[in-house]
Structures are given as structure tokens and as C-alpha cells.
Amino acid sequence: MLAGAGLIRELLYEKNTGIETEKISALIQNMKKRGKSKLQFVALGGGQEVGASCYFLQIDDAYILLDCGKSPAGSCAPDFTAILKPPFLESLGQISQIFISHSHYDHIGALKDLADQCRNAGVYATPITKALLFHIFWNLNNRQRYLSENAQELDEIMADITIRSIIETGYCREILLPGYTATFYEAGHIPGAAMVYLQTLDRRILYTGDFSCRASALTSPYILPETLSFDTVIICGLHAKHPNLPPGRDLQSQLSFIKRKLEQGRSVHLETIQLTKGWEILHIMNKEMRKKTMPLLPIYIDRSLCLLAEEMERMHIPVREAWNYVGTPPRGGQCIMIGRNPSPRFMSIKVDFSLHPTYRELADFIEKYNPKTVVLVHTGTSEFQTEANYLEMELLAKASSVSQLIYAETGAIYTL
Ligand SMILES: [Zn+2]
Asked: Which CATH number fits domain 5-25+39-243+356-415: 3.30.460.80, 3.60.120.10, 3.60.15.10, 3.40.630.30?
């Protein structure tokens, strides 16, 4: 943990970061002079909605983006109007760092579009997230309709340059940046997902991204060091207003439905919105078949999914089993397809599920870390939504709680 300038100096030498001594001294002097850190926050998308998670955070002279998402169809994208005016930025060229929490499209979709404008920003992601990005952008490029081959080639080149320039950042490694440090911690949710911990001399901020408190098909729950503390959290509040949503309801009910159809002898095509979701459902189906809770049937996947699975296997995340095949299933015989091109011979089932903390897990997380400021973003709606702010009432009832909740509205400016 950073306790002062002396410790920063020690850490820098210890980690052999290669930053020149004069630069370190200037950084320390600057931090000493500054006093209280200035913290401003704007949700550029994904405030009280899901679809384009992109958050602007100013820490003194550092202008940071936390995620760069948009919807796959492009119907919602980040809106930079609030920060492209005084007292913030003249241009997006002033963005200094972009931290990518994980590879779901609503957190990375706008990265390619912003690459040129944010050309001075260092972009950070875990190695798995970076590897997943290649597949996601490649997959999407092949789905888009382009006016010409040149337009497609240019788009692919842009995606390639954008992803190659990402700085791979492992978990638990402190990155030293002008005025603050950043550390990634495992967020659960999907492989490669990270929480981002930002620290100045007087502030400690955690951005959770999407995270899970329970193990999922491919990940463990989130992992934070026991001694970690933070005064401010920007947290995924998907179920903050859903105190009565049963945990795992979505996935379990979908699996039961698929199982019923398979037991009736139907062949099914499992349709997923995102490539990573296809990969997750492949793993879930294989797991169910291994446990014998589902009939053992051949599963046919498309080429994109196969390439993604191969890449992840190279990164020691095995998914495929002996009963998995690539390509179009032969005529006759019951089987399962996972991919984007449904066949009229198959019953098509849309599969979508979320691996986010439930209301209870969210409340317990806030109570455990007891941060002074809780900025809730990425909140969602469902039939279980309540108008009453149960979360606030629950925290108020706890004598030890000091947490103040902010439901961040997209475009509004918050001084934290
Ligand atoms: Zn996600």
C-alpha cells in the first residue's frame, strides 16, 4: 500500500520499472505539493442502464476512461458531451489512460471507434481480455455489412492496431502512473475480468466492472486482498433495485428448458448475442453432460467459436470435450448447435444470462468494505424492480455503515 513518497520511491526501485529517477522525483514533488486529490466522475454511458458502460474519472491531472462499451447494434454508445467542455477536456486526445475491465461488448465495443481520438491514452487490460478482444472484433467485423471491401479491411486494420497497442496487465501488479497507481484484481464474471483499484496519496478508489460473488462456469468469485480498503467504489449495481430476484434464476430456468426439449428428442440451436456467451454456454453444456444431468449429445460449434476456444485453451482455459465438433451437423440424429447461423431443422433457443452480484451479495459487499462513497452504475430493470430504495434503507439501519449511495445518472457530473 502507498503510505508516502518514500514508499513510492522504494516500490519503484524494487519493481525495476525503468522510469528515470528525475521523473520519479518530479512525480513525488508534485504529489507532495498537491494536497487533497481532486476526483470528478461522469458516466458517459451505462449510468442507470446497461449497454454502453463508459465512465470518465478525473484524478487531479489524469483523465481516465473506465471501459469503452457500446451495444453490438450500435444503438447505444458513450456520449462525451459532458466532458468535452470546461472544466474538463478540449479533446479526447487529453485522455491519459483507459482501463478495460472485461471483454463483454457493452464494456469494449467503442474502443475501436475511439482509438484515433484517444491516441495519447495508454490502454490497459488483462492478457485474457486482450486475447478475447481479437476474437470479438474479428467476429463482429464478419457480421457487419460494409459498403466496400476496402471499408472492411480498414476496419479490421483499425481493430488490429487498437488491440495490439493494449498494455497487458496481470492481476495484483501495481502500475505506476503520473499522480496515482492502478492495480487489477480478479473480478470473477468471465475469464480475464478485472476490478481496477486506483490509489493516490489520500484516495483509494475501486471500480468493480461487472463482477461475481459466486463461481461461474469459467471463473472463481472475485478475489480482493483481505487487507484492501477503499473510500470510494464505482460499482456494478445491476441488481441494486432487485431485492427479490432469485439468484441464478435466469440461467437455471434456461437450462431446464433446454433439458426438457432435449429429453423430448428435439435438436436445438443455442443462439447467443455475444461470442463470449457462446463460449460460456458451450462450457456449461459440457459440464452438465459430464455430470450426466443432461443427455450426452454431439455439440456442433461454428468456426468463430472454435477459434476462440482454441485460443483460450492455449491460455490454459479448457472448454471443449470429445463430443464437440466444428461445422454443420450431418442430417439425421439428435444434436445441439451453438453459433450464430440457425438451421431450420433445429429449434432455436435464445440463451442469455448474467453473472452479476445479486441484491444480497451487493449489499454484503458494500457492508463488508464500508466505503464512504458508493457510486452505483450499470443498474438494470426487471419485473423484480422496486421503487423504494431498499439498499439505502438497509445500510442506514446499520450503525457501523458510513456509505453514501449515488445512483449515477448518465451525463451528470459528480465530485467524489
Ligand atoms: Zn459483463
From this structure: 3.60.15.10
